[in-house]
Each structure stands twice: as C-alpha cells, then as structure tokens.
Amino acid sequence: xxxxxxxxxxxxxxxxxxxxxxxxxxxxxxxxxxxxxxxxxxxxxxxxxxxxxxxxxxxxxxxxxxxxxxxxxxxxxxxxxxxxxxxxxxxxxxxxxxxxxxxxxxxxxxxxxxxxxxxxxxxxxxxxxxxxxxxxxxxxxxxxxxxxxxxxxxxxxxxxxxxxxxxxxxxxxxxxxxxxxxxxxxxxxxxxxxxxxxxxx
Amino acid sequence: xxxxxxxxxxxxxxxxxxxxxxxxxxxxxxxxxxxxxxxxxxxxxxxxxxxxxxxxxxxxxxxxxxxxxxxxxxxxxxxxxxxxxxxxxxxxxxxxxxxxxxxxxxxxxxxxxxxxxxxxxxxxxxxxxxxxxxxxxxxxxxxxxxxxxxxxxxxxxxxxxxxxxxxxxxxxxxxxxxxxxxxxxxxxxxxxxxxxxxxxxxxxxxxxxxxxxxxxxxxxxxxxxxxxxxxxxxxxxxxxxxxxxxxxxxx
Lengths: 201, 251
What we know:
Chain A is an alpha/beta fold. Chain A has helices at residues 8-17, 25-37, 40-56, 73-76, 91-100, 127-136, 150-163, 188-196, and strands at 58-59, 66-67, 84-88, 106-109, 141-144, 169-172. A four-stranded parallel β-sheet of chain A has the order 4-3-5-6. A two-stranded antiparallel ribbon of chain A has the order 1-2. The model of chain A has no long low-confidence stretch (mean pLDDT 92). By secondary structure, chain B is an alpha+beta fold. Chain B has two domains: 4-79, CATH 2.40.50.140; 84-150 and 183-250, de novo design (two linked rop proteins) (Up-down Bundle), CATH 1.20.1440. In chain B, a hairpin with a 6-residue loop joins strand 4 (56-63) and strand 5 (70-79). The model of chain B has no long low-confidence stretch (mean pLDDT 89).
C-alpha cells in the first residue's frame, strides 16, 4: 500500500482488515471506506462486539465447543444427555451438524485430526478427555463424524480402537454419494466407498 | 502455455487463500515439486479424491509465468492406498518413508528410483506387508538412493573389515571397529552383529526383494533408532512423521 494515498488511521484499519482470511487489500479498503461513512454508533457496536468476542468466548469445559460460560448451551441442556456422543474435528463441523437438527445428543470437539505427515498424534487432540467422558458420563454410543480424508479416516480408525474396549457402540457417518449426485459422474473411489457402506433397502 | 502430465505421489496439502490449495508432491522426473491447485476446495471434478497425502495420482501441470510454483490444472487418482487408513502402524511407516523421499529429491538422476521405491513401499504396506520390517529396510534403501547410504563393509576409520564389538559413527556414516572407536570423532552408537548384518543386507538388496527381510522387535528398535539419529544428523532436522510412528507403536 502506498504511504501517501491514505491518512495513517485509515491505513491502519486497511492493514488490520487485510489480515483477515479471504480479504485482500482492495476489499479491506472498501470495508474501511464503509466504516468511515457508517454512523459512529454502528462502528462502536462493531468494536464492542469484537472486544466481547475476545473476552467472553472460550471453550466449553466438557465438549470443547465455543461457549460464553463454563458449559456451552448444548452441554448445559439436560435433555441432551441421551447417552449418544457425536465426535467432530472442530467447532465449524459441530455447527454444520447442529443445523441439520437430527442429532439430539451431546458433542465432543477433538480440536483437529491425526496427521501422520505433520506428526500430529493422539496426544495433540482431546482424545484423553473423550475417553474420560465415555467412562464417566454413561455414554452408550459414540458416532464419529470426521471427514472422509486420510486424516479423518485415520482418526476414525484410532478412536474406534480406543473406544471399543470401553463397551460402547461405535459408529461413523456413512461415506459415499451426496444427495442429488449422479452415479455416472462420480469418481471410482467414492463409488467403491458407497458400495462397501451399502445399507439394507 | 504448454501443459504436461506427470505421475505423482502427494506429500502435503495446505489451504492457500479461500479456495486454492498448495500441494507438495513427488514426481519421477522432477523430484519434490510444489504446485497450486486453483479452486481445488470447490472443484470436485478436477480433483476428485486426488488431493490427499500419500495418494498416487496423475497431475496435469502447466508452468506459471513467474515463481517456482506450478499450476495443477487437474488430477486423476491412480491409487489411494486406502488400506493404510485402517491400519495406523502401516500408515505411520508409509508417512515416514514418504517424508524421507520428499527430503531426498536431489540428486536429479535418482528421483525416478526414489519415486519408484516409495511407490513400491506404499504398495507393499497397503497390501498388508509388515511395517516393522518394511520401514527400516526401505528407509535405508531410500537413503542410499539419495546419496546418504551408510558404509557397512569396512571400518570408516581404519578401512579394515570390522570385528565385534561394533559401533556406528553417525557423522562418518558407517561402521567403526572397537579399536578405532576413540579415534573416530562424533557421536557413536553400539551396533550388535545381528543388526549390522540385517542393515547391510537391507542396503544391498534390490527394492523388490526387501519385503523378504524380517526385523525381530529388538533389531527393529535398534535399527530405527540408528536410522533416525543418522537421518537427523544429515538432513539437519527430525522428520515430523517419526513422532507419529513413535506414538502409533508405543506400548
């Protein structure tokens, strides 16, 4: 960014915004211009919201999803103690699954996936906490909802090995064709997975 | 702009901006190459199931006008080595070998052999081969192809055929006899005659015969400890995947 074009305060905002994911310098400049023209109250509200985000949002003590109290709203809801636990890699996956509205139990956020080539092992994830929850919270079924990638499948394999000796039912979400998909345009690996994970009609 | 096709084994994937992915892969002609897959996060057809570590693929590449990165226009999956995902010891062994092969992308004349050897190792692991034996055997073989092969036949200090008790000199990259132990500088590891013979054999055998070797647990542990220290010394860092192997084989 050329130093002469904008005053220092504006340059500072553009530089800060262009650090955000998906925001380049041009978009950052447009956003800064919008903030400059916006009413003072709107800008103050945004600044306050950002500060509160940093001050109040933490991880739930039990499931490690985002929370603004000791427990997240899902863990604090007694009706969700159904004995089913759905394991996800990160809070974004939790939000996507929760939007579906099908699952009524509780979640556990691992905080990542095993990654052999990056050296990420079980100790780097919240696996110990998961096993403690399964032992201590009367969990009967654990559903593993991890991406069908090398890392996701390796994590599913590992968790299956660790959870089965605890006497709980362990399942993973189905792999295969997406809804509205077309068999003739689907790649071989996906078709293979769809066939091997077929269900009774 | 001319494009070319190349077989590749994917080593690493990173997100690059909102929609692109940065891919590190091993090729038979160019060794380790970095490329950018534009819109890879959204395009399921151009990169269907391709962009996963350890996948063997065929990439269509075109050079970028500036910079070292190539454009990956599209990819086709050849072998996902999918059984590795359900056996973590095999997966860990495959990851260590893939990372090492990526580090050994030079010299250029060896890249074809390094690619073929890694592919052979992944096929054997995927087919149910014993990771405890395949890992040290192929690790040593890849080191040899990359120009780091240790010397086993004669003492690195006096040049004579060594007699037990034996030592392995990390810095000299070979076996040292007990009388030369003090004269040879640098870190030294004790080497049992069984491990010495096994590693010598592993380095001499062609890769297609390496699956015949069996490393009993104690010899496997000593061999892997030696190879890990040796590669750390010569590559200047520990391979990240060693820690995953250790975690998967602990206990």
